[in-house]
User: What shape does this take?
Amino acid sequence: MRPLQERFEILRLWCAGNSANSLARRSGIPRGTIRYWIRHFAGVAQTEEATGLKPVQWGFESLHQHQHAAYVYLPGLYLGDGCISRTPKTYLLRIFLNDGQPHVIDEASRAIALLMPRRVGLGRRGRIRIVTAYWGGWPALFPQHGPGRKHSRTIALEPWQDKLVAAHPDQFVRGCIHSDGCRHRRIVNGKNYPAYAFSNRSSDILMLFVWACELLGLRAIRSSRIAISIARRPDVARLDEIMARSWSDPPREVTSRG
Assistant: This one.
């Protein structure tokens, strides 16, 4: 396997306008290899925007700055109601979403398409829409993947994931709620109040959700063994604003209210 720095340099020169043929002549690297790099890795492995993330095998040695929010949104979806399965030749990511939320289905599909050089599919199971994508790099991009159901094993973020979620806690919370949460109404002393809930059978995943909420200054409480509730009126209003902002919207600073 050729050094990563060599690949980075070839991609940098190609982005600067050099053809694959000229790069092959100058570098001595086979033209087919260079074309493969361009086809699969151009756009995701630029050294100028590398952020020191954990290296993975399938071309995501670094993520561009503009991909960070989309990436953080996807673990929220995956941990909420997604899975990665081994197929004979590769891996399959499936995200299970409500058929009645086409905007969420579209956002999930766009986030996957931004991060990986593969086709994003869409299936149906009753009223559930399943966003799918085949790719060999999913276990490296989502190291929480493992044998058995998520609630039966330890779920923890890698240090590089910690860093990204801490930078974009709003997108992690959005992903969790979009996949396995909801905005609902509750009756207290005869009055009707809005609230948010996130449910999961994994205590580890629930605590990751609570941590991200704390980073946003939201008070999230354990309302049952498998559910987290956000019910204070100012927190619900804040979360309404967060839920309305896609990862693809122009970035703005997310600050805690302490």
